[in-house]
Design a protein that fits this description.
The strands form 4 sheets. Strands 5, 7, 8, 9, 11 and 12 form a 6-stranded antiparallel beta sheet that branches. A two-stranded antiparallel sheet has the order 1-3. It has a two-stranded parallel sheet with strand order 2-4. The N terminus is likely disordered. By secondary structure, the protein is mainly beta. Strand 7 and strand 8 form a beta hairpin. The chain has one domain: Chitinase A, domain 3 (Roll). The chain is built from 3 helices and 12 strands.
């Protein structure tokens, strides 16, 4: 069974620690659940254990067929087993130099829960891009690891297990403990 969601601009979650108006948080753990801090600083949460029901060597398959980067991606939650490891797949490859640790990246994104496809954040909905330094520990580990090698103009999906996301504590009301996350991210610019 596939659920189709219109992925809403994910930046609110990332900007205020994955905190949209309902309190998600991509920011530091001490800010988890806080939507009061509008700063885009994001610190990877304490690693938890992979969620129950994940399958080693599983891949999610493509979660969107939306290749037009001028449009917010629609995310289809896969029916198959949940991957235990970070699952990175390019939807649109992009061009130019590949992103590396230390690069300033500017992103558009949508984030949903793997369990039910519920959107918890989307920069698209806020109408603003999300900047961060790759490898700087300002975002969840799944982002720091999953963006390496991405090129400008690319669209990539990240299926992030709990230990590279918000772990056993979750983030606010929108991201429960032990949640596997799906992000579709667009690399707007490097530098």
């Amino acid at each position: 069974m596939r659920r189709t969601l219109l992925a809403v601009a994910m930046a609110a979650v990332v900007v205020s620690g994955c905190g949209g108006s309902s309190g998600g948080d991509l920011d530091s753990q001490s800010d988890a659940g806080s939507s009061a801090d509008p700063s885009p600083g994001v610190q990877g949460p304490v690693a938890g254990s992979p969620g129950t029901g994940c399958t080693n060597d599983a891949t999610a398959g493509k979660v969107t067929t939306t290749t037009d980067l001028s449009k917010k991606p629609v995310i289809d939650v896969p029916d198959g087993p949940i991957p235990c490891e970070l699952d990175v797949q390019d939807i649109v490859e992009g061009t130019g130099p590949a992103a590396k640790a230390g690069d300033q990246l500017t992103m558009k994104y949508v984030g949903v829960l793997y369990a039910d496809g519920k959107q918890f954040d989307a920069s698209w909905d806020r109408g603003s891009d999300f900047p961060f330094t790759l490898g700087g520990g300002n975002v969840i580990q799944g982002w720091d690891q999953g963006m390496v090698g991405m090129k400008k103009g690319g669209r990539r999906q990240l299926v992030i297990p709990p230990d590279l996301g918000y772990g056993d504590q979750g983030a606010g009301a929108d991201i429960p403990p032990g949640a596997t996350l799906i992000f579709v991210v667009d690399l707007v610019k490097i530098g």
